Amino acid sequence: MITLPFTKMAAAGNDFVVIDSRRVKISNGAKLAKRLCDRKLSVGGDGLLLLGKSSKADVRMRIFNPDGSEAEMCGNGVRCLAKFAVDNKIAGKNLFIDTIAGTIEADVRGQIVKAKMAQPKELSLDVHVSVNGQETALHFINTGVPHAVKLVSSLASVAVQALGKEIRFHKHFSPRGTNVDFISFRPGNAISIRTYERGVEAETLSCGTGSTAGALVAAALNNLKSPVRVHTQSGEILKVYFSKKGNEFCDVFLEGRVQNSFEGRVHL
Predict the structure, then answer these.
(1) Which of 37, 80, 207, 250 is catalytic?
(2) Cα–Cα dist 147/116, whole Å
(3) Closest to 205 in 3D by CA, of 160, 146, 162
(4) How far apart are CA 107 and CA 115, in angstroms?
(5) Which domains are seen in the chain, by residue range?
(6) Is a pLDDT exceeding 80 seen at residue 1?
(7) Where are the beta strands (DSSP E) in the chain?
(8) 72 three-class SS
């Protein structure tokens, strides 16, 4: 039997099981994620974060979704991993994290963690697709992982689970599928957001790459300025900073609070 120490962490309600895989060999991250992320039978979480060694950064991050799939990046996850690395004296307060989506720079100041996101790409506004027999206008952007963004007048009335699932598996976004964000404008330089996450296959209380996608699409549609304040379903606010050169966004940062929920051990 193997005893596996873990830390449960959360960023704006997006929660993760974090494991230092330098200390114990993880032979199957997908299988472990399915087991540990189960909210009824185990620790529970929106994903499993594995911290490992990297030859080109301070640490490496791998993230596995509850369904066992491996994600390229996770905005809230990378911020949690950064805080974990600093808290455990694995890296300094300014650190670089190797991910499938590229090397991410993060800055940790207590509970506030700011991460430079992957260069956004594939921005496409007013993509019209047929959903449930009706033409729906969506906006698309890849912020490390793919996101389809839908502008709505009222988030409270959106059937996030049903509509999100339809869009997530829509043939237009096959074969990789997409995350789905529903946004509405708030007074000032702000939006509200709800996200259906690919791999979790449900709505989460927040999504870092989704908040980034929603903020950038909102900036493109309504000329919002940096930073955009993103009101998440958890009640916490994330800030998205960016620069714009022509029609392209660059120097994109995600900032918000990260907390350690608890520590524990599981027996495998």
Answers:
(1) 207
(2) 18
(3) 160
(4) 6
(5) 3-117+258-267 (3.10.310.10), 121-256 (3.10.310.10)
(6) no
(7) 3-11, 14-20, 47-52, 59-64, 70-71, 94-99, 102-109, 112-116, 121-131, 134-142, 146-151, 179-186, 190-197, 202-204, 228-231, 237-245, 248-267
(8) coil
Q: Can 250 be counted among the known catalytic residues?
A: no
Q: How many CB atoms lie within 10 A of CB 256?
A: 25
Amino acid 74 reads C
- The Cα 154–Cα 160 span in angstroms is 12
- pLDDT (tens digit, 9 = 90+) per residue, 105-151? 999 999 999 999 999 999 999 999 999 889 999 999 999 999 999 99
Catalytic residue flag (residue 207): yes
φ, ψ (nearest 5 deg) of residue 232: -95, 170
CA distance 19 to 230: 29
Annotated catalytic residue, options 37, 74, 80, 250 = 74
Q: How far is CA 164 from CA 15, 77, 169, 260, 261, in A?
A: 20, 21, 9, 29, 28
* Cα–Cα dist 175/173, whole Å: 6
